[in-house]
Design a protein that fits this description.
Length: about 200
């Protein structure tokens, strides 16, 4: 995550700390699985050198890379991020919500209601800049339930072969079994909320 010229946004300091802990957690997960970097590269399609640099926090993971790693480790992105955070409180003030930015892809992700070991649902806010286009090879957990509610702008969501165009106020609910894609086809940014429910 990188700071913008106008200074850090609310929650940005949380994201900076998160990035270093995330790198360490990715290295630990690979070790726990007994996988070499070469084996993880085979499973994810991510180059060995990129994986090594991610684990050493030399580069920031893109949404696409993180999606592939989550699939390999059978975790949602929020579950992975929760593992590098302390136990979340019941009330999460806006300024304490973890924010992660993938500036190369034009994607910002806010963990509004972080996952909790005893709960199956969570709420995530996403913002995609105009032209941003993010694809995921598959869900981290097959049959993952999502409710995608567009708050501002337009969002094109493709699940499998079916594409849906959502405008402000529209909500798409689905279960993910295969590939998915989030694209902003409009001239302005799109802001949306995703309610994620584990099967």
């Amino acid at each position: 995550m990188r700071s913008s010229e106008s200074g850090p946004a609310p929650g940005e300091h949380v994201g900076e700390q998160l990035e270093a802990r995330l790198a360490a957690r990715l290295a630990t997960l690979r070790t726990e699985q007994g996988w070499s970097l070469d084996e993880l590269a085979r499973q994810t399609g991510i180059s060995r050198s990129t994986l090594s640099r991610l684990e050493r926090a030399e580069i920031s993971p893109t949404a696409a890379l993180l999606g592939k790693l989550c699939s390999a480790y059978r975790r949602t992105m929020s579950q992975l991020l929760a593992e590098v955070e302390s136990e979340p409180p019941q009330l999460v003030p806006a300024e304490r919500q973890a924010v992660w930015r993938d500036e190369a892809s034009g994607f910002t992700r806010r963990s509004v209601s972080p996952p909790h070991p005893g709960l199956r649902g969570e709420v995530v806010e996403g913002v995609l800049l105009p032209g941003a286009d993010i694809s995921y090879d598959g869900p981290p957990v097959p049959g993952l339930e999502q409710h995608i509610w567009v708050l501002e702008g337009e969002l094109e969501v493709t699940a499998g072969e079916q594409a849906h165009l959502l405008r402000a106020g529209d909500c798409l609910r689905l279960r993910l079994w295969g590939r998915s894609r989030f694209r902003n086809p409009a001239a302005g940014p799109v802001r949306y909320a995703v309610l994620v429910v584990l099967p």
